[in-house]
Amino acid sequence: MPIIYTELTIRAPIQRCFDLSRSIDIHMQSTAKSRERAVAGVTSGLIRLGETVTWEAVHLGVRQRLTVRITEYSEPSYFVDEMVKGAFRSFVHRHEFGEADGQTMMKDTFDYVSPLGWLGRAADKLFLEAYMRRFLLERNRYIKQVAEGEQELPK
């Protein structure tokens, strides 16, 4: 059961970072390499408590669908998305935000369980954990780039 933890300082207000992190449109832009797109539930704009989104993407050469629900939400401090259906046995992704001196500290905790028992645990060690860490860092760096720029947020 790997837990991936990332932390990034962003020179932007906490509300901007919070909104960018829950933006469906920004998520699709940040994950263009895997051709991730929202195909059901909330498919554009900002996702909120209790809402779901189903993502379709190609990861590790395999087309897959993943549905998540926002299960916890306290604006602009944190939100949690949990897998409802998808390739993992389970996952919980916690997004936390804190502000100091005009900057935002964005923290992600991605706690997941791979499918297939010992085979899934072997995949974690061999490649999956590293793949997921890179995926999350790339997405967060994109959020940082947009947050620190002048680009308007999607509504």
TrEMBL record:
InterPro entries: START-like_dom_sf. Gene3D superfamilies: 3.30.530.20. This is SRPBCC family protein. It comes from Paenibacillus hemerocallicola.
